[in-house]
Design brief:
Blueprint (H helix, E strand, L loop, with lengths): L7 E5 L4 H15 L4 E7 L12 H19 L3 E7 L8 H14 L3 E5 L9 H17 L8 H4 L9 E5 L6 E4 L4 H9 L2 H4 L4 H15 L8 E8 L3
Helix pairs in contact: 1-6, 2-6, 3-4
């Protein structure tokens, strides 16, 4: 199996999480010519307070919203795993899905949710982050992990860098001063999630948040992560 490699893979629990967590950085990367792949783990079919909304209709809407946001950001491809919202579990099968995609696209950098955020944290975020980290090391790297993937032509791959959004242990800040506006525009594509909030309020909240993340840097706005360099 041959697939054109991508420099970055963003593995997100739900449609819209990547726009909150990393969209400003993604926009900067795509402007620099990097190839970005999104992997969306769940279909987001629980993400509404509208009593008239059916889960299957919401899943369809949210998939289209994610495609629109990714197109605006310049993301090359979006892969939908379509697991039920609130239904992710740390299983060998889910881990194998992520390992397969890492070996297919061979990213240098993987971005996902920090699984170690304490106390109140969406379980899908926690599980996505943990499964992704395990898939990166050691499963995608080790030849005899999921040996059936070798039969598919998927050779081992070592990811070199991991960025975790929503971390409580920040050690890396990415300048999004010039891409904040496109981050906001991409987030607004998720009308089912943010459409009920006045646009100016959302922008004001996020601008303040990203100013805080940039404190101590020589730029105005930042997305902040816990960065891990994979040395093995």
């Amino acid at each position: 199996m041959t697939t054109k490699p991508a420099q970055v893979m963003v593995i997100t629990p739900h449609p819209d999480d990547a726009e909150y967590g990393v969209a400003g950085t993604v926009a900067r990367w795509t402007r620099e010519g990097k190839e970005i792949i999104y992997v969306v783990c769940t279909n987001g079919d629980k993400g509404t307070s509208d009593p008239s909304m059916k889960p299957e209709e919401l899943a369809r809407i949210r998939e289209q919203e994610q495609l629109a946001a990714a197109k605006l950001l310049g993301v090359r491809e979006v892969i939908f795993l379509r697991h039920p919202d609130q239904g992710l579990e740390d299983t060998p099968e889910f881990r194998k899905e992520i390992v397969r995609l890492i070996r297919m696209y061979r990213p240098e950098t993987v971005v996902t949710a920090d699984p170690y955020r304490r106390y109140i944290w969406h379980r899908d975020h926690r599980v996505t982050g943990q499964v992704t980290l395990d898939a990166i090391f050691p499963y995608a790297r080790d030849r005899l992990s999921y040996p059936e993937l070798l039969d598919e032509g998927l050779q081992p791959h070592t990811v070199r860098e991991v960025l975790l959004w929503a971390s409580e242990d920040l050690n890396y800040r990415s300048d999004i001063t010039d891409t904040f506006d496109i981050k906001i525009a991409a987030l607004r594509c998720h009308k089912s999630q943010v459409g009920q909030h006045p646009s100016l309020e959302v922008e004001k909240f996020l601008r303040q948040r990203h100013q805080t993340m940039a404190e101590g840097e020589d730029f105005e706005l930042a997305e902040a992560f816990h960065r891990v360099e994979v040395l093995w």
